[in-house]
Predict the structure.
Amino acid sequence: MGSHLVDRLVKEDPDNLVVVDNFFLGKESNLKDAKQVYPNLKIYNQDASDLQAMSKIMNDENVDVVFNLAVVPLLVSLTKPKWTFEQNVNMTVVVCELAREDLFETLIHFSSSEAYGTCEYAPMDEKHPLDPRTPYAASKAASDQLVFSYWNAFDIDASIIRPFNNYGPRQNEGSYAGVIPLTIKRILAGQPPVVYGDGKQTRDYLFVTDTVDAAVKVYERKSTRRRVLNIASGKEVSIESVISTISEYLDTEKKQIVYEPERPGDVRRHIANTFLAEDLLGFKPTIDLNAGLKRTIEWYRDYGARR
């Protein structure tokens, strides 16, 4: 998501554009296209939870807005729960401190639909209770509370966007991959796709470029300050259905799907209410799931060929 946001920000022809990432999950190669279009792109290979290092970067750079996407992903929290929680909260408190110290003007903080837990009522609006089911989800809920506290206590200029299930080109396909890149990777390697649990769990998928477009609009619209906005398609689809669609596009028989035990903390149902984003941003997804899956599959096919 971060590299797609950089691509989107390059179109604004900013005076300065800075990326901070320790590349625990992402790849610097994902920024190749942006670097070609915007040669002055600055990339710091840096842990965003290091306050001293981040303060130096912010003092050295002329930055108006920080889009905080820094995160250790969900699956890591199932094997390293304490570290995941601490890292995610520490990265958030660092950017909040930098905002409190007026080292930049506006914070656009990326939350996660995982903070809601499983759906208690549908569709899930921004007032839905937070009921995190994993240490990752707890870290995202806690981070949101941190941002709330800083805008209440110190009047920082901030907005929170809560993306639901993002997918698209460049998504990590390695050890901590999501279901879409993992399924594509397995099928292209001649392996059967895997469903954890019964596959009836639902998610609300949104193509990554729609998400980053919304993030830029959140920054541009002052009416979003001190608010949380769901960014999603507003449509739910089962995991089994998504895997079956990918299998169909890649000419793999559905009967080859392998069912494994349900993963710990897996939410049962997600579907977003996006009325607030529609009202404040005029937000509407532009790429439906079928078109987005085709684009994503083609990217991974080409990526595999390049490798």
Notes: The two ends are 21 Å apart (CA to CA). The longest strand covers residues 157-163. The mean pLDDT is 95.
